[in-house]
Design brief:
globular, alpha+beta, D-amino Acid Aminotransferase, Chain A, domain 1, four-stranded antiparallel beta sheet
Amino acid sequence: MKELDAADVLRFNIDKPEDFAWDFHRDGFRIADKASGREISEKSLSSFYLRKPMYFDLIDIPQHGCVENWRREETDELFNDFFRECQSRGLVALVRSQNNKYGKLRQLLVAERHFRVAPWHFFHGELPDELTRGRWVVKSMTSTMIGKGKMFLVKEVDPRSLDLAWPWFVQERIEGEEEVTVVYVDGKTFAANAPRDSFGGEDSRKSLMEKPAPWPRCELSPEDERAIKGFMDETGYRFGRFDFIRKDGELWFLELNPNGQWAWLDQDNEHGLVSMVVDAIKSEDRAHRERPSRQGPPPSSRGASR
């Protein structure tokens, strides 16, 4: 926010709904910050940047239900759907693909053409024969919380011990030296790394949640840069954060987070990561404002035949 012109920006915090009022209706919308009195509507919106919505105060979901969980899901779905509507009008900044959504399965298939990729399986009902040999880690397709303080983290398992009544995503364990994460913004990259033994060689998110700390910057080779750009060009994304493992000098692909968290890598903007993201948002916003055929709010349906 320090890098943006605050007079032109309304920031909505999904985890602080008590600070805001909003109304979405057939003729448009209005979102207001009750403390500052600042508001935005369909007439003033030029760009919408959806930074990954997250709740850090985790809640439990008991058997009889949880009203707070309902409120969160309702709010989350509203703003995700509003994001999709803004995308349809060409008003979204950064977070989108020109070639439709790429989930983890599609990412892995594309990544084979650009990076080293360890063998993987999404399976249910029967154990693939390959999983009876070697070392494997189990992962999750989504970031869905299991309960209060419970998240499905990457963990080494013996696939033969998994209950085949459940769906599983496993990948062969990569014995690499370090984890590398790369933020990609409009052709520019920001890379950082951490030794794998600094978090026990398992899920790096656990150490980040328990003891947050920025990772030191690292360099990418020209080959790495070309592979990353090739992947982004093929998938149509112009923004995202990659996760890799470096083994014997080569990057092994884990995933692309199309709207992954990135500010923890350079919280004080000492290395220019925040500026890199903000400059891309400003550039796209200028293009939105200057576009002569910019679409306005949806036409009123009053009087239309039904």
